[in-house]
Amino acid sequence: MIKAAVIGVGYWGPNIVRNMSASPDIDILYCSDLQQERLDYINGLYPAIKTSTNFKEIISKPEIDLIAVCTPVYTHFEIAKEALLAGKHVFLEKPMTSTAAQAEELINIAEQKNLKIFVDHTFIFTGAVKKIKEVITSGELGDLYYFDSVRVNLGLFQHDINVIWDLAPHDISIMHYLLGSYPESVTATGADHLGNGLEDIAYMTVYYPNNLLAHIHTNWMSPVKIRQTLIAGKKKMAVWDDNHPSEKVRIYDKGIEVVQSKDQIYKTLIQYRTGDMYCPKLDGTEALKDEMANIAYSIESDIKPLVDGHAGWMVVKILEAAQESIKARGKEVKV
Hints:
Number of strands: 15
CATH architecture of the largest domain: 2-Layer Sandwich
Strand order of the largest sheet: 14-13-12-11-7-10-9-8-15
Order of helices and strands: EHEHEHEHEHEHEHEEEEEEEHHE
CATH superfamily of the largest domain: Dihydrodipicolinate Reductase, domain 2
């Protein structure tokens, strides 16, 4: 079995501990956190797990194969680099690092040491995203026109990162996985209403080749919680509403067609097409369970994981470009 340790068991870390503990391929031996009460909480649930407030002590353990880093993003690089240099595979909570340069350095170290980097883009492993990817790959939607995502709610306000770095990594990772293309540039606007230098509302547009456009709206100041993504193709369109209790993904046979007009006044006419709608059956397996299985299989079989360091780097690269654009009042920034 793969011997693992989790560093950081505050908000998200316990979910990683739970799924690693349930995995038949991963044996979690250690947990680390600066707060002893968080370690006491973990010990209350998993008495066999050893704990320490010193993460360096855990990284140095020779029996550990995999280090999961679930700490604030500004600490990711230091911890992950030390783990890689110690010969450990690394699993990083999103976003991967604070800068694309840091992500590149980690990727280079991992490649030199033949180690794996995994990034916790959990939504890639959901039944909804897997089904939408299947529909896109099959050609059912046709050539893609746009990707439009809304992720808004009231809070949770972060003290170290803005709303884009907090919420948008989910949508950017989904966008990058589904579209399967390298973006050309980014524009973004945002506003800081609390005066702390951290934007709490932001709009991001990502430009792709062939007139493909992506738009992401993130907001900590919304009276309602919305988690919705629209993907339109030449043939059909898909809507993913993650808040819907049952029909999370809907495929619509709707679209437009441009036809030539015989009327001299108009050169083209738009013809609307409305057909059936269906809700595909989704895999109900918990995303983190599938993610742990993919991590274990990647290590055991020495193959590329579904979400590797390069995928994490791309998300950070787009986040950096969006941040630069916000500070320049929406200036277009090349990726």
